[in-house]
Amino acid sequence: MRYRLEAMTEAHRRPVIDLFSHYVRTSFAAYPETPFPYEAFDRFLAMSSGYLAVATTVDGAGEVAGFAFLHPHHPAATFRRTAEVATFLRPLHTRRGLGTLILDRLEKEARPLGADRLLASVSSRNEASLRFHTKHGFVECGRFREIGRKHGVDFDVVWLEKRLVIAGRLFPLNQGFTARVAIKVGKYAEIGSSGATSS
Length: 199
Ligand SMILES: CC(C)(COP(=O)(O)OP(=O)(O)OC[C@H]1O[C@@H](n2cnc3c(N)ncnc32)[C@H](O)[C@@H]1OP(=O)(O)O)[C@@H](O)C(=O)NCCC(=O)NCCS
Description:
By secondary structure, the protein is of the alpha+beta class. The chain is built from four helices and nine strands; from the N terminus they run βααβββαβαββββ.
């Protein structure tokens, strides 16, 4: 399947909020208990201003398959070296290597912005995300025990940290790129990329 990463714009407002609301309703992947209004998209954009907010579309169909953020951990300049990441893919597009491609892109974007530490905040009841981040070199660096309760179920907030070692070239910000994920019997057999993958 071919995907395209593009800078998040007004055109993504509805599908992005709809997707986030899906995880609000059905899981611990999103912390809130009630779906967000479409106006909340403004906050998504503001939060990642100057950093990166991307949407992933399926080539041709124009369907939003997911979205992701790279945003500052804290507004004070003393924390400039630390950014947070978050990715939400539509269920149909999970477990195909797409999250891995997006995280790789976020990591490459982080370094020139001065960030060499990434943080991810994950619910203890989101096993898939904990495994995903751990697989990609994040390590648990803090856990606030049972500080959340969603739909009557307690959960911890787990913070995971990754210290970045950047290798490879960076492709231009906000120009998007296409990624092809070849799927073979439910697993990704090959992750390749084409188009403007490097500058
Ligand atoms: C978490 C998420 C971003 C991961 O992206 P993805 O494209 O599904 O993950 P990938 O296919 O790149 O998987 C890479 C590795 O992560 C781990 N992983 C991903 N999904 C997993 C799952 N459901 N169960 C167990 N491990 C999983 C595996 O180690 C996997 O490697 P493998 O396929 O060789 O076993 C994506 O599944 C998603 O959007 N989930 C729902 C929303 C969410 O939880 N977002 C994170 C909020 S903190």
